[in-house]
Amino acid sequence: MSFVYYLFSILFLVLISPLVLSFIKSVKMFLLYKKPASLLQGYRNFAKLLQKECIISKESSAITKIAPFLVLSPLVLTLFFLPPIAKESYYIGFVDAFTITGLMSLSTFFLMLLGLDSGNSFGGIGSSREAFISALVEPAMILTIFSISLMANNLGIAKAAINLNAHFPINHMASFTFALISFFILLLAETGRIPVDNPETHLELTMVHEAMILDISGFNLALIEMASSLKFIIFASIFVSLFMPFGLGFGAVFAVPLFFVKVLLVALVVALIETNIAKLRLFKVPNLLGIAIVFAFLSLISFYVLGGGR
């Protein structure tokens, strides 16, 4: 029965991923005094892309044909390593920060290859910018998850979330808060949200993610869009499991709706930030990601200073 809950949680995350992004867009439109888009718009866009013709440039190589699958595959694999949603669910407890970060980086690597293979200037610009941002995000992400895992007394992410639910680190609230701030900044950066990137723009001076997929259409674009929504739900799931761990000890009847509400709360905060903050210039992004790295270091240092290492 626990394995059934495990498979259900993976399917649940896949199904709600377009809904969460549609929720962010609807909240932003509401705050801007516009008519909100339907929460089902993400599913409609996906269905529309599946019906469109897939056009591939003559200048591109075989990478363009296989890269969309390689972008999506590591993210689908990551879904199997996430913390459990409910108490009865099966989970894989040995996966640590290095594995999760490595899978995310692998997906980003193939996305950058896809942008470079298009042969146009936009794809190259987007790929170079993505590499620039990822080089700063990955060490901060490893440090942050490693720090919160130490507080949970287990390096495995799934087991760490369960331990945090059972024994919340009240004595290390400073370290916990530093790690929370750092990871939320990384969530915005790695999922391409404002202030690091704007997922709704096609202006060549500002776009990062969109620049790499300008030449992609049809089924391939549907795979890329699915990967984008999965990446957000993965980061949101890790965030609520590690930094809002209450509810993991409940049964599936209560835990699943509570988990969904927590994810929507994260999406609401993202929408509020995107509505009230302008996108940063590219050369200002390292300042923001530097803050994430500093907070990750502060989380580790304060944990040991307060005696957590003993």
Q: Radius of gyration from the CA trace?
A: 19 Å
Mean pLDDT reading? 88
Quick one: overall form? globular
Number of domains: 1
**Termini gap:** 39 Å
Task: Tell me the fraction of residues in β-strands, as a range.
Answer: under 5%
Tally of DSSP β-strands: 0
Biggest pleated sheet: none
- What helical percentage do the residues reach? 55-70%
Query: Could you spell the SSE succession in H and E letters?
Result: HHHHHHHHHHH
Low-confidence spans: pLDDT under 50, at least 5 residues? none
Q: Class by helix and strand content?
A: mainly alpha
Instruction: Count the DSSP helices.
Output: 11
Describe the secondary structure blueprint for this structure.
Elements: H1 2-31, H2 41-51, H3 63-79, H4 97-117, H5 121-151, H6 157-166, H7 173-190, H8 209-212, H9 218-243, H10 252-276, H11 285-305
Short structural description:
The chain has helices at residues 2-31, 41-51, 63-79, 97-117, 121-151, 157-166, 173-190, 209-212, 218-243, 252-276, 285-305. With 310 residues, the protein is mainly α.
Description:
The chain is an all-alpha fold. It has one domain (2-305). It is 69% helix and 0% strand. It is built from eleven helices and no strands. It has helices at residues 2-31, 41-51, 63-79, 97-117, 121-151, 157-166, 173-190, 209-212, 218-243, 252-276, 285-305. Helix 3 (63-79) packs parallel to helix 9. The longest helix has 31 residues, at 121-151. The chain is globular and about 60 Å long. The protein starts with a helix and ends in a 5-residue tail after the last helix. 46% of the residues are buried.
